[in-house]
Amino acid sequence: MARFSFLGFFSLLALAAYGCEAKTVTYDFNVTWVTANPDGLQERKVVGINGQWPLPTIDVDKGDRLVVNMNNKLGDKSASIHFHGMFQNGTNEMDGPSMVTQCPVPPGSSITYNFTVDQSGTYWYHCHTEYCYPDGYRGALLIHDDDAFFADDYDEEIVLSMTDWYHELVEDLEAQFMSLYNPSGAEPVPGSFLLNDTMNSSISVKPDTTYLIRLINYGAFVGQYFYIEDHTFKIVEVDGVYTEPKEASMLYLSVAQRYAILLTTKNSTEKNYPIVTVADSSLLDTIPDGLKLNNTNWLEYNKTASHPQGIVKAADSTGLNPSDDFDLVPYDKQELLPEPDMEIDVTVYMKNLMTGFNYAFLNNISYTAPKVPALYTVLSAGDAAGNASIYGDFTHSVVLKHNDVVQLVLNNADSGSHPFHLHGHQFQVIDRQPPYGPTFYDYLNGDPIPYDPKNHSSFPKYPSRRDTIVLPPQGYLVIRFVADNPGVWIFHCHIDWHLSSGLAMLMIEAPEKIQERVSIPDDHYEVCKAASVPYKGNAAANTEDFFDLCGQNEQPAWIPAGFTKRGIIALVFSVISAVIGIVSIVIYGLADIKNKNLTDFAAPSSDQDEVVVEENSARPTKE
Ligand SMILES: *[C@@H]1O[C@H](CO)[C@@H](O)[C@H](O)[C@H]1NC(C)=O
Ligand SMILES: *[C@@H]1O[C@H](CO)[C@@H](O)[C@H](O)[C@H]1NC(C)=O
Ligand SMILES: *[C@@H]1O[C@H](CO)[C@@H](O)[C@H](O)[C@H]1NC(C)=O
Ligand SMILES: *[C@@H]1O[C@H](CO)[C@@H](O)[C@H](O)[C@H]1NC(C)=O
Ligand SMILES: *[C@@H]1O[C@H](CO)[C@@H](O)[C@H](O)[C@H]1NC(C)=O
Ligand SMILES: *[C@@H]1O[C@H](CO)[C@@H](O)[C@H](O)[C@H]1NC(C)=O
Ligand SMILES: *[C@@H]1O[C@H](CO)[C@@H](O)[C@H](O)[C@H]1NC(C)=O
Ligand SMILES: *[C@@H]1O[C@H](CO)[C@@H](O)[C@H](O)[C@H]1NC(C)=O
Ligand SMILES: *[C@@H]1O[C@H](CO)[C@@H](O)[C@H](O)[C@H]1NC(C)=O
Ligand SMILES: *[C@@H]1O[C@H](CO)[C@@H](O)[C@H](O)[C@H]1NC(C)=O
Ligand SMILES: *[C@@H]1O[C@H](CO)[C@@H](O)[C@H](O)[C@H]1NC(C)=O
Ligand SMILES: [Cu+2]
After folding, report:
1. Which intervals hold domain Plastocyanin-like (predicted)?
2. From the CB of 365, is ligand 8 less than 6 Å away?
3. What's the CA gap between 239 and 260, in Å, rounded?
4. Would you tell me which CATH number, out of the four given (2.60.40.420, 3.20.20.70, 3.40.50.2300, 2.60.120.260), belongs to the domain 16-147?
């Protein structure tokens, strides 16, 4: 008895020492369409929560349990929520990506996410079912930590999101993106760029005050440069990893990246200073007239003083030289991980397949979702779970051994930059080429440089660590992590257009431990039933023979070697005509064609796939 209360006394002390008791924080999200016009240019449908948009910020303290009840009332669209950067250590089933760790939640269904938060910093949450977060379904997720090394160094906190913004629904953009008319894979160009989901804002500040500013790029596509004229600041966190303070005056945030910075305001209240964001135009295939790439908001010291427009040092991004994230030293000084037990080598390519659409590849695989969420395959496969083949030929699944040091080499055979994100982990960034400089994000000289293990830069002693990293154009990245978090984790480009065209692969981490630790709550299985998605079996939903993948989802067939991009459309047409014997062909879903009188085209026959070819219409746009 005495001993029991003695222990009890100490656990109370432990709680007191922690500062505050870990609590459960619950959010009820009714997800519906609402309308918004954040750039003043176009009112549109956006995904709202409890009738509101911008979406609420999720605020928790380190150690809390977070419960999010999501009720999908969109009526016409499936959804899910990924809590970006959360380790979900022991709760892989709460990670959120559809067909990876859960079924898509169909309209009319709901799901509960429930997990403890044992990390801190600046994160975000977003829909992770094919094409859903560019419609506005994303918000900030902040994890406060009284024990942060800089906790006593600031007076107030400011959260600033930045994002690209489209005027069209993502389903209409998708139809244009994945189409015969877009054989080069040009991504949809945003209509504007927002700061904190609006424009022209004044962020009111007090003089001689230190602010912790949390920056999040929760866009779908375009990276942005950020600076405040005449101000410097200290970086103290990158993607949830505290860093040795680093002085900087400009940052680049790809989509999905975050920073926390400490900024001390000036003593004088005479002037206001432009907060300048510049969209990374190197990602855009075209820059339409009227698209404002650089935007000014204000650090406002004085309401009545003038609010000057920011001055961008060059009309394009090449004059901008942001702070390098490669040399950020994690505050915990975690050393370079030892030589890897396992190495994964993949190369990014963009290519056309037999449909004529442009797909994204890691090696020769364009990620194609399995018929059963891969986590559910792990749980129903018994001993076969350790064999990557059961996850299918098109999910690019790699089985990792528990606690192995994994090295991932990512080469870029593409001339665009790609922000890659690994779920469930932060990784060390141990090599990256070409070297950092003003043209880093737009490196177009010469051929791709692949990683050469016999000739590389020396690895840093304390490598930078984060959860989303930019793979430079035609360069490479080498990252390391420890497979100490059993689960199925997707590794993917965070440009939503590239994810949906296949730039992803799956880490099946310690499947035997997943089977011991993970149990799926009933409501998650109910979601599968409501969505008519099987939740047992291999990638082809075969529950009898896990090695029989007949009927699995497949990427379209390869185009025979030797075809140029121009030849592809012709080839696809001749194949389609040969197969279905029609002359004229109509693509469904192209907004401009939908609005046209179809009698302009050869009469389609009603019971076949029809595609109409319109001359000079490589990039259809909406009127
Ligand atoms: C922001 O200001 C510009 C003029 O500088 C104006 O054209 C634009 O409509 C404003 N946007 C919003 C959302 O207020
Ligand atoms: C969600 O909708 C249900 C009924 O449709 C309502 O009872 C509930 O209060 C709503 N929740 C919130 C947080 O608005
Ligand atoms: C969340 O999970 C905890 C631990 O499993 C459980 O005790 C609690 O009831 C769950 N809460 C909800 C709302 O499901
Ligand atoms: C950003 O927007 C949110 C509303 O979405 C608002 O509560 C917050 O005050 C804004 N932050 C700043 C710094 O203006
Ligand atoms: C602002 O004023 C405080 C005290 O009045 C002083 O300590 C500080 O150095 C001043 N800061 C600047 C940037 O001049
Ligand atoms: C604010 O700006 C106005 C106009 O420039 C100036 O007259 C005034 O003194 C300033 N106020 C403060 C508190 O600095
Ligand atoms: C903003 O950027 C555009 C190009 O995107 C450039 O033409 C313009 O000069 C820039 N504005 C300023 C004030 O620098
Ligand atoms: C990719 O290449 C491997 C090895 O050459 C081959 O076994 C596999 O079938 C290929 N996959 C696809 C989808 O082409
Ligand atoms: C996985 O299963 C396939 C098909 O049964 C077999 O050929 C292969 O050797 C297995 N691989 C491993 C690592 O056991
Ligand atoms: C090693 O890499 C450097 C820098 O990329 C290159 O200049 C050099 O030629 C390479 N050396 C060999 C032996 O490949
Ligand atoms: C997950 O938790 C285990 C302890 O249960 C720990 O060893 C491991 O480092 C954690 N992994 C991550 C990524 O948090
Ligand atoms: Cu990409």
Report:
1. 30-146, 156-303, 367-512
2. yes
3. 8
4. 2.60.40.420
